[in-house]
Design goal:
By secondary structure, this protein is α+β, with helices and mostly antiparallel strands. It has 3 helices and 15 strands. The chain is elongated and about 55 Å long. Keywords: Signal.
């Protein structure tokens, strides 16, 4: 009788231990974008919050501006970085214009302001943000670098190495199409612009080759928080143009730093792609455009 009771007690204790180990080994890695049941479908960029149920969208921040020009409604998988790229803005500006209490968290269904207060939005800034992963990019989850007030980012594969800020560099102008772009790398073109498949140019090179700023501008993003781009730099040149430089092995500038045309801003690499290359984009009011319209002939 005593032996039977001992066996039963041992079995119960063992079962409890297994359950505790199982629970302790489950890690929750929830992205800052939360799906609170206001949008159908699943996200490939960020997991939905578990155990959520449908809520009244009128309770979400910015609901009163939903559908208005100059505003954007957050969808599953969105990040402030991607929204900023799609609308030609700095993610920090969007966070400020939208009065975000915590820029690390945005919610599905939340409405964000994507144009400066008082500015009349153009037709290009009222279109929905779309997936723009460069051709050949890996579908693997992004690395995890999270700026102090960034949204939905993961740690960078390589820590950016700040370069000394240039002296007396002007801030981006409010000009339009009058920029003089240069080629950001010296390698050959391995993939051209294709609106459906490749949002820019892929330029060949060796690991460590210099990546240069295509025009004067300000760094509005430097990190690895945008899936498919690896270690990425985004420069804002004026109120019209952004340029993006992806897959670098080392970043040599930091956010809010002003840079000169031709300044070395990164070293070429193969982060989040299958070979060493620079993926380069020119975006006019957030819309990817063919770089051949702006780069000089070689």
């Amino acid at each position: 009788m005593n032996l039977s009771r001992s066996l039963v007690a041992w079995a119960c204790a063992a079962s409890a231990s297994v359950l505790m180990v199982g629970c302790g080994s489950t890690s929750v890695n929830r992205a800052p974008v939360e799906d609170r049941g206001t949008s159908a479908g699943s996200s490939t960029s960020a997991p939905s919050s578990s155990g959520t149920s449908a809520i009244d969208p009128k309770t979400l921040p910015g609901y009163e501006n939903m559908g208005k020009p100059g505003y954007y409604t957050v969808k599953p998988g969105d990040t402030l970085i991607r929204i900023g790229l799609e609308y030609g803005q700095s993610w920090k500006d969007i966070a400020r214009w939208s009065n975000l209490e915590n820029a690390n968290v945005i919610e599905v269904g939340q409405v964000l302001r994507v144009v400066p207060p008082g500015q009349t939005p153009s037709t290009t800034t009222t279109t929905a943000a779309t997936e723009t992963r460069p051709v050949g990019a890996s579908p693997a989850a992004s690395a995890a670098k999270q700026p102090a007030s960034a949204a939905s980012t993961a740690s960078a594969a390589a820590t950016p190495v700040p370069a000394p800020a240039p002296v007396s560099v002007p801030a981006p102008s409010a000009g339009g199409d009058d920029l003089n772009f240069m080629w950001p790398a010296s390698g050959g073109l391995i993939a051209g612009f294709d609106e459906a498949r490749n949002k820019g140019y892929d330029i060949s090179g060796k690991a460590g080759d210099p990546v240069m700023a295509a025009a004067d501008g300000r760094v509005v993003y430097a990190g690895a928080g945008l899936r498919g781009y690896g270690n990425l730099i985004i420069l804002k040149h004026n109120n019209t143009f952004l340029t993006a430089y992806a897959h670098n092995q080392t970043l040599l500038v930091k956010e809010d730093q002003n840079v000169r045309k031709g300044q070395k801003i990164a070293e070429m690499g193969s982060t989040d792609t299958d070979r060493v290359k620079l993926h380069f984009e020119i975006r006019r009011q957030g819309k990817p455009v063919d770089p051949s319209r702006y780069l000089p002939s070689r």
